Amino acid sequence: MRTKIVAGNWKMNKNVSESKSLTLDIIANLNAQSQTRVIVSPPATNLATVADTAQGSKVEVAAQNMHQATSGAYTGEISADMIKSTGVEIVILGHSERREYFHENDALLAEKVNAALAAKLEIIFCFGEKLEERKAGKHFEVVKSQLSNALFHLNADAWKSIILAYEPVWAIGTGETASPEQAQEMHAFIRQTLTEKYGTAVAESVSILYGGSVKPENAVEIFSKPDVDGGLIGGASLKAADFIAIVNAA
Ligand code: PGA
């Protein structure tokens, strides 16, 4: 059985004290028996506080980004080791906002992936097509090339540390969700692509999350699809009640 995962990407929201209280609120309302992994991703300034707050609970913590170098003259950046030193063991890489606003491309992401794995960080790797690419019927091709360019240099063993998050760019923060059928179709394609490259054992063990306007109202239907193993949640992860409802949907 693949692990179900629900991860909340807080993006550039919540200061230190707000991050702490949201974390406490989530912990207080989580079903402790649930098999679903629950991850929250606060801004870098709040990683240590949230990691301390979540210690001993079901809640795991992820950074939203990191630099590919181990250290050096990169003003404003943070390294894998700095993330680990806060007690955090997961990093999100390749989010469409990083690709769009900070010009991250597949080649750079391959370097970041290598740096994160070298530091023994688990990775939530985001990818997905833009609206014009879907309209042009290129969405499968785009997704396949994002995966092969940034991840297919890895050996099979490295995939134990990779969680995939398919996030069609046209569905992020827009209120427009991929239909459960569109999500399933793409997730099945991703798993097939993994099977061709790495074989069934790897393909069947990798969790593939869906992201893009997941809400309590649509989560059950999306998560019920066989190749959807949970979600990466933006806007709806900023309110404990909504986030918990989505976790319960998984
Ligand atoms: P959204 O964001 O849920 O607000 O659409 C998803 C994401 O960017 O990961």
Which terms summarize this structure?
250 residues; TIM Barrel; 43% helix; globular; binds 2-phosphoglycolic acid
Write up this protein.
By secondary structure, the chain is an alpha/beta fold. The chain has one domain (5-249): Aldolase class I (TIM Barrel), CATH 3.20.20. Helices cover 43% and strands 15% of the residues. Strands 1-2-3-4-5-6-7-8 form an eight-stranded parallel beta barrel, surrounded by seven helices. Helix 10 (216-223) links the parallel strand 7 and strand 8. Helix 1 packs parallel to helix 2, helix 1 packs across helix 11 and helix 10 (216-223) runs parallel beside helix 11 (240-249). The longest helix has 19 residues, at 180-198. The chain is globular and about 45 Å long. The mean pLDDT is 96. Residues 9, 167, 172-173, 211-214, 232-236 line the site of 2-phosphoglycolic acid.
Summarize the structure.
About 45% of the residues lie in helices and about 15% in strands.
Radius of gyration over alpha carbons? 17 Å
Oligomer: single chain
SSE succession? EHEHEHEHHEHHEHHEHEH
State the separation between the terminal residues, measured CA to CA.
14 Å
- Count of beta strands: 8
Number of helices: 11
Unique bound compounds: 2-phosphoglycolic acid
Shape summary: globular
Largest sheet: 8 strands, parallel, barrel
